[in-house]
Amino acid sequence: MLLPYTNTNLEPDMALMAPQELSIHVTRIGGYPVEEVPGLSEMKAMASTSLEEALTLLSATGPDLVIYGCTSATLSLGPEGDSAFANQLSLDAGCPAITTSGAILASLHRLGAKRVHFVTPYDAALTQRGSDFLTEAGFEVVAQTYPSTPLTSLQQGELTPDRIIEMIIAGDHNSADVLVLSCTDMRAVECIEALETVTGLPVVTSNQALFHELLLQLHLPTANVPGRLARSRAE
């Protein structure tokens, strides 16, 4: 797993959802100042940062799969750019590769979703770029929710599940058929069951989608993945 260096929530989420058969090995990557609000330009720059050193370090583990644990970096590239990024990552790593943005798209297709309420801890411009990404991929974004005051990377990771739920409940989700919570450093996995109960909608989060797709590709059990996403496959 390639993980942004400020991220403190993806690894705990992975531990919650991992079956015994899986081992996860992490290399951290940088590319943006931690004290500033990460915007569209910073995320595009991160997506263009060389991963050669990180992949060299990971290669010693002999990975069966490489995952890119940042959503906004490849959201900034658009669906075609995200797909090209994943293909290049696979070539460079010498094994299959998954991006978080690509996993979200795969999850939405698995659920048969069309109309998205898009939720982020990003600023307005980066949230809009994420919405445009989904639109370009064929989905309709009917609502957006993001913090009224822009957050630094560290502050995004500090949002509590209760605060995330409050943000979403205050928004207009009535015309959506799915909630998408974007960001691998947002504590969204902990909110999935509560949000599905309160809103009646299936929930797709960055970490849940990434992990679900990872497990499917490795032919491992998805029983620990919360929400309708994993249950719909079982049904």
Would you write up a description of this structure?
This protein has 235 residues and is of the alpha/beta class. The protein has a single domain, classed as Rossmann fold (3-Layer(aba) Sandwich). Helix content is 47%, strand content 13%. It contains 12 helices and 8 strands. The strands form 3 sheets. The chain has a 4-stranded parallel sheet with strand order 6-5-7-8, sandwiched between helices. Strands 1-2 form a two-stranded parallel ribbon. Helix 6 crosses helix 11. The longest helix is centred in the middle third of the chain and has 16 residues. The chain is globular. The two termini are 30 Å apart.
Descriptive terms for the model:
4-stranded parallel β-sheet, alpha/beta, Rossmann fold, two-stranded parallel sheet, globular, 235 residues, single chain
Low-confidence parts, pLDDT < 50 over ≥5 residues? none
Beta strand %: 5-15%
Return the CATH architecture: 3-Layer(aba) Sandwich
Number of helices: 12
Q: Which fold name corresponds to the CATH topology?
A: Rossmann fold
The percent range for helix content is 40-55%
Please give the largest β-sheet. 4 strands, parallel
Which structural class should the secondary elements be placed in? alpha/beta
Q: How many domain modules? A: 1
Instruction: Tell me, briefly, the overall form.
Output: globular
Distance between the termini: 30 Å
Let me know the average pLDDT. Answer: 93
Strand/helix succession? EHEHHEHHEHEHEHHEHEHH
By DSSP, the count of extended strands is 8
Instruction: Indicate the radius of gyration in whole angstroms.
Output: 16 Å
By CATH reckoning, the class would read Alpha Beta
| Strand order across the largest sheet | 6-5-7-8
Protein name: Aspartate/glutamate racemase family protein
Organism: Pseudomonas benzenivorans
